[in-house]
Queue: 2 jobs
Job 1
Amino acid sequence: MKFWLGAAIVLVGLAAMTSTLKYEYFFFAGYTVLMFVVLATAWNILGGYAGYVNFGTPAFFGLGAYTAAVLYKATAAPLALQIAAAAAMAGLLGFGAGLLTLRLRGIFFAIATIALTVIMETVFINWRYAGGATGLQLLRPPPTAPFESYIKMLFMVMALSAVAAVAVARYIERSWIGRGLRAIRDSEEAAEASGVPTLRLKLFACTVSGALMGVAGAPMPMYLSFIEPPSTFNLNYAIGALASPIIGGTGTWLGPVIGAVLLSSLQQIVTVTISSEINVLLVGVLLVVFIVAAPDGIIGLYRKIFARR
Amino acid sequence: MGIPLDLLLEAVLFGILLGGFYAAVSMGLSVSFGLLDVPNVAHPAIMVFGSYCTYMVVAWLGLDPILAGVLLMPGFFLLGMAVYRFYYEAFERRGSETGVRGIAFFFGLALIIEVGLILAFGVDQRMVDAPYIGKSLAFSEVRIPMRMLVAFGVAIVLTVALTLYMSKTFTGRAIKAVAQDEPALRLMGANPVRIKQWAFGIATAASALAGSMLIIVGPVEPGMDRVYIGRTFAVVVLAGLGSMTGTVAAGLILGISESIVLMHPGLGASWAPAVSFMLLLLMLGVRPQGLFGR
């Protein structure tokens, strides 16, 4: 109950911002922060709960974005339909990739997901209808009623997606699925021996995680009015999706949210004030420092400090 | 297949040279990941770092790039030992190396190296100069670039040296033993950590030479490690973890298939990067222990 109340307050607060704040750049940057909340939450379902590292975030994200773009080009479908289709396609990709590689040890899954990203990028570079290597220009439709600009509308869409993603992750975490996934992370052999359906659970987690990443990508073509392979399948999405949960704490749904909000806000600030190279360096250094010094992330640090008192 | 015979012949010939080069750049990973089970995703980044070090040595001292690579090897050996020591103290000893943290650590390391290179050198491509770069041998219709031949030669030497080292010397056999059965080695009174540290040093030293070959074969830029993550891991997995002869065979398979796709009129350069990854995915799905798996 407390969770839903909190979610409602956040949503109402953000909606109030869209009608009062005039500064468009805030929503432009805020959209990115919220997008990384979705990506980090999605990553954490497989990476945090089950301990399977996914480097392929851009593959799912990009497939979602391209599904939306192609659907829009072909039928001028509304945004909600684009997002639903993106979720379905990316979920399907997650299921397929999982079926192929989730029987293997974790590192092979990680390598296979990198492979997936490059294959997806190559496919879309060679697909003429979707714009090929040069990309595809998209004309945005006018924003729907209560919103005065398209960016503000996308900002709210992403806020809703973030709340939905966190709710899904929280549900999984608290149900028997989450317990099963945690058992897999601690010892896959022991879990299998105690009757946990490990492969089925991993497949489920990979599918849901992929679908949510697709949702994060779906509004991207409309956000930029443009889509092209190199920036859509950029490894930086993988970095953000992996670093945020590790910095925030991988055990709970709150970790990725804290990590993503802190990290991508910081990234936005650093990119604007210093440079985008320093911004990537910062993520790398933070990632290594947290893995080595604070393996349970900010949440773990917080708990440690309060346990002592 | 829709590809003329003479073009196919040229593609296969070029593919063999390319394959030898791929085998050489994967050799270090074959030791560190294949034998030691360290998820060294930073291997290609260390290699690109080796390319830039070669570039600097060549620019300052005017040496031959291969000689520069050889001179870099002791330094990279120490660097590798330090990286493994850190990895061991931070992860393996606490028993948390498997799963998320170990991989994420090397991923972060790769990122730091990549951005460090961008900050130091910029995103422009860098290349070196040597008498054999830019020339090519012509056999009637087929032309073979000299730089590929040189890289191939170095690759062969590196492979033979590593294979001999692993099978003939005491330390080399100990490295193989640590891969097979670590507790048994410990019971024999040997220190597996010290052996692994040594082996990781050798793997990193091999990356230095691989880096100098990389900059001979073509211009390098800091982001190049991302493509080579796929290529090197594809070769090592295809080979079967830790098999040196397997690494050569897998490198040749990858080189020839990439080169055929590259020269195929219907496919061409835009499909070439996907070849290694397709091979990798297929291998993982069908026969995860690799062609020459243990």
Job 2
Amino acid sequence: MRISISNLTVSFGPTVAVAALDLTIESGELVALVGPSGCGKTTTLNFVAGLISGSTGELLFDDRDVTSVSPQGRNLGMVFQDYAIYPHLTVEENIRFPLDIARIPRATALESVYSTAELVGVADLLKRRPHQLSGGQRQRVALARALVKRPGALLLDEPLSNLDAHLRVQTRAEIRRLQSELKITTILVTHDQSEALAIADRVAVMDAGRIAALADPATMYARPPTLNAAKFIGSPQMNLWDLAEAGSGFARGALVDLVGSNVGSSPYIVGLRPEHAVVDAGGAPGEIVLREVLGRDVLLHVRTGDSLVRVMVAAEAADGLYAGQRVHLSSSLANWHAYDRDTGSRIELRPPVAGVST
Amino acid sequence: MEMIRLGPVQRIARLLILALGLAYTIVPILWIVSVAIRPPGTIVFPLSIIPTSFSLENFRDVLFSGGTGARSGIGVGPYVNAAVYGISSGILTAIVSAMGGYALARYDVRAGRVLLLVMLGLNFLPSAARLVPLFLLFVHTGLFNTRVGVILAYVAGAVPIGIWLMAGTIRQIPVRLEQAARVDGAGPFTIARRIILPLAMPGVLVVATLAFVDGWNAFSLPLILTQSPDAQPYTVALQKYATGDFGIVWTGLAAGSVLGVLPVLVAFALMHRRLLSSGGLTGAVQG
């Protein structure tokens, strides 16, 4: 089922939560809505579910206009952040609930419940009650309940944010596997950009009620289409400098060949991902002011001239690097990103061929 | 949790206080039972708690027969009336309170907060303050001396605290559950029946039981609002029976009261069990 949202605006009193948003999710596609709290991503999802009032805009499921159809008429499956499992029903009754509502005969319903429970991995929990389940198990039950009626689309509202880190990574892979197995159109709302990059076909970065960028995960990371996306995607965050400001000395020094000697007056914001700043024999001299061990990598905060640069170094290469040490920083021109300061749109500083190498 | 340890003096003091509290609540009941099971007409004074002889005749007298002299007992009718009033009031109050409580809990009712406060305030008014206005109202609307009238009066009295309690109960149920049910395909009535009602059941039972007990025990309202013995509950009938031409018949009054207390005890016992066994909202939503 294809989902088309057009010209969606949602206001809560004087607050505009979503502003003139257009988005089409193709049949079988998994699109992640990602962005900071209050960016309108959950509101957009609730609009698709039919759970909010006070919105203007149009919603199509394939070619059917469902804008004014009630939630119960939309045939959707939804998993909420807090799971919203019915506490007075057993796991089996929870999963069976949508089928009971649809008056599916008991025998058929139970068959669907068992096969879905099997698929999601809760088959041995069917007789339990919700308070006897762990967080991860509840999450799976909620997923089974959402999938059991073979909905036209699956809506996931921060489904992983209440799980511990290990389980989160495991479950997101599980969700992706189920989604591609069932070929079900899916909208995933998350504030975790790594989760969005990991499992989505396309990622929509939202900011202040608008879609700031929409691209596949590889493009979103390698060449963020807008400044907002550059700020939000990637962890640790991309180094960003406004070329017109003091403090951008390192960037100006690195880019002087590309932009020419008048870079100082350019209305550009330029960026360099921490893994693309290199501790080198030559380059801009600086001093390590902070060393953070991230696990596989080490993040160095290096002061060079008037700039502070985040530099990511593989752990084995960081052995001899410590706070207070003097180092030199260099970078490859092809790894720099540039954005128009006023519009936030991406500016290609170089021929596209060079961009591919990032 | 670490329990606070008591010294010997404190322990004795605690025992004494508990014993006094227990005596305060239980002795009157025991006394009434003790008076009720004496032979009819036994002189109550001088006071004695231990009856000297035993008889169930008082109960028979109150319920069925003429007993001493030409007086007749109040019969089973008044108890049936009280049961009809209490049960109807319990059921109606629970339904009205659940719906009103839901509205106040879920919808952004204008002045809903004020409405709740007013309702709670109404509950603090002495019920006697309502008697005369209700009497006049009932006389003019033809509800005077009708069963429907009595039930309506009870329900009107019990609904304010009922709505207050139900609004609190329903606020505890996450809205998210209703949203999930809507996406799962449930309409408003299905959600009310299969999600809200089961989860609000402890509150519904409390409200229904309170209304039932209030209705069963009511005295001044039915005294004013009914006239014919057909419509009178046992409280009113018993008062008339006990203050007959022969002065207060203590043994009969006691027997009638014992019969009146029993259903209330049973209702509380039942509610107590259901309240403890209901699982509550554990596990509904995470975080």
